[in-house]
Design brief:
By secondary structure, the protein is mainly alpha-helical. It has a single domain, classed as Up-down Bundle (de novo design (two linked rop proteins)). It has helices at 3-28, 44-48, 60-73, 80-108, 113-139, 144-152; strands at 54-55, 58-59.
Length: 153
């Protein structure tokens, strides 16, 4: 994976992790978050404290925070195996984020701006990871090394 793609993926993961951390703080807070409690359509507090804000005892925001950390870790090791694990992981995260967006739209009828930002982050990570994987397939498993060997032949 080239350095620009890696940097973009890591930056999007950091943005997603920060949004997840703020959501996690709001999940446990007992006070209103003025910056995200705009009206009856956009209210992070209602979303972050709903029954859908946890999977069993685990807050969804913590799952997001750990997921983004995992994706950052998967962005550095070279190799096709790590690229495949990253793609599968980010598309699983994207599917979960889309499910949560469905809950916000159709069940709660309230949107969380932090959640929308996280959805955009994971969608960007999924798209860029797909581009990186497609490029690595074109150049071979060794990336630039494979290009250099082809040029030497």
């Amino acid at each position: 994976m080239n350095n620009k793609l890696r940097l973009a993926i890591v930056v999007l993961c950091v943005v997603g992790a920060v949004l997840s951390a703020v959501s996690l703080r709001n999940h446990y807070s007992t006070t209103s978050s003025d910056y995200c409690d705009l009206n009856e359509t956009f209210n992070c507090d209602l979303v972050n404290r709903s029954v859908y804000a946890s999977v069993g005892p685990i807050p969804v925001a913590l799952i997001g925070l750990m997921g983004y950390g995992f994706l950052i870790a998967l962005s550095f090791p070279p190799g096709r195996e790590f690229a495949i694990i990253r793609i599968v992981s980010c598309f699983a995260g994207l599917a979960f984020a889309l499910y949560l967006a469905y809950i916000e739209a159709r069940v709660l009828a309230v949107w969380c701006l932090l959640c929308i930002g996280s959805l955009a982050s994971i969608a960007g990570v999924a798209a860029l990871s797909t581009v990186a994987f497609a490029r690595s397939r074109r150049t071979g498993a060794g990336g630039r090394l494979a290009e250099a060997k082809i040029g030497e032949s």
